[in-house]
Amino acid sequence: MTHPYQEMKDMKKHKKHYDMLGYICDAQYGIPTRCPCGGQIKTDVSPNPKYRHDFDTLPGSRYFTCKNYEDDGMHFRQPWAFGVEDEVRRLRMEVNDMAEEIAKLKRIITSTSRP
């Protein structure tokens, strides 16, 4: 049987690990700016071509990758297209919200300026 202090220490370590996995899953929307580990994100191209006939024109798939990337689930390696697609979707929603707000303000201004 382990000592209660060691058991509590191990339990906190496991909880921190699982919390970090949740943060990583939630953070993989849009273009990442920082990895949850604190590392910088770089744009990377895989060295292997996606298809055999992709010679010089398409050398491989593009990724947003953590500078300290290890395949342990704690670092980012996100396909470039997914990140850009999420970011464009977010920006479109933001522009639509702003357009609605501008239209609302125009209605308020025109309704109060008439005698």
Automatic annotation (TrEMBL):
Domain of life of the native organism: Eukaryota
Protein name: Zinc finger GRF-type domain-containing protein
